[in-house]
Design brief:
- The protein is α+β, with helices and mostly antiparallel strands and 195 residues long.
- The protein contains 3 helices and 10 strands.
- The chain has helices at 2-14, 146-158, 184-190, and strands spanning 35-36, 38-44, 58-65, 69-78, 81-91, 97-100, 106-114, 118-127, 130-139, 166-168.
- The chain has a 10-stranded antiparallel β-sheet with strand order 1-3-4-5-6-7-8-9-2-10, with helices on one face.
- A hairpin with a 5-residue loop joins strand 5 and strand 6 (97-100).
- The termini are far apart.
């Protein structure tokens, strides 16, 4: 019996989902992560993928939660210019796990969350038959708190990512924020004289 339990345990440890529990509160409301974010940290088990011109270097700046998906608004730097991208991460049967639309084996996990302060997102994908892990720390403010940075570093370590493979993203790394589109009501009040 103990041999069977050991075999099951080892199987689970080899599975990436075994490492992902999501927010500590199983009743956590995912809509709380909606809104504006600043990318504060990035890490990967393959750090060369985080260079400016690589696919994994996506700068998340807004998350919208829908009943069926997370909509990620990102920027990617291409030849020094920021190119806006929107990606859909569709919910799966497993809570806090999503599947990115660009590939079948591209999974996104909503991990540690303090909706007023930070979110840790972990992405697993297969590339040339290797498991690639990319972890992002998002902050509600331009600078993440020291506590959030420490939690991020510890999270990365627990997922086999060496601290030298962690990049702290600064305001100079980010793309400039574009003004939000204005509604017709806001535009109408712009032209009305104030009393």
């Amino acid at each position: 019996m103990s041999l069977l339990l050991l075999a099951v345990g080892l199987t689970l440890l080899g599975c990436p989902q075994a490492l992902h529990w999501g927010p500590q509160d199983p009743n956590f409301n995912e809509t709380l992560v909606s809104g504006e974010w600043f990318l504060a940290g990035m890490a990967s088990n393959q750090p060369k993928l985080l260079k400016d011109d690589k696919d994994a270097r996506l700068l998340v700046h807004r998350i919208q939660v829908t009943p069926r998906a997370l909509q990620l608004h990102l920027h990617k730097k291409v030849n020094g210019a920021c190119v806006p991208i929107t990606m859909m991460a569709n919910k799966t049967k497993r809570k806090f796990q999503y599947r990115l639309e660009d590939a079948d084996q591209n999974r996104l996990f909503l991990e540690k969350v303090d909706p007023k302060s930070y979110v840790i997102l972990c992405n697993h994908r297969e590339k040339r038959e290797k498991e690639v892990v990319v972890v992002n720390l998002l902050s509600r403010t331009r600078e993440a708190s020291p506590d959030a940075l420490l939690l991020f570093t510890n999270y990365c370590r627990s997922h086999g990512i060496h601290p030298t493979n962690i990049i702290k993203v600064t305001a100079t790394d980010a793309c400039p924020r574009l003004p939000q589109p204005r509604t017709s009501a806001q535009l109408a009040t712009d032209h009305c004289p104030r009393a």
